[in-house]
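U., I forgot to send this yesterday:
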Amino acid sequence: MTHLQNALDFRSQLDPASAEYAAVDALITQLIESNTFTYADAYEYERYIAETDADRRNRK
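Result:
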């Protein structure tokens, strides 16, 4: 699951007419526009690859 999907899942738990929903929606929009979610997902992927590569080397 991506960081963006986590944020959207959180937003879906809020009342669409609430101030909290509007604030979360604005934040999600800002993070999308600044490519923060893309960067975070790429970082997590790189970290996962590094950890699994280390695990594979240790098994040999």
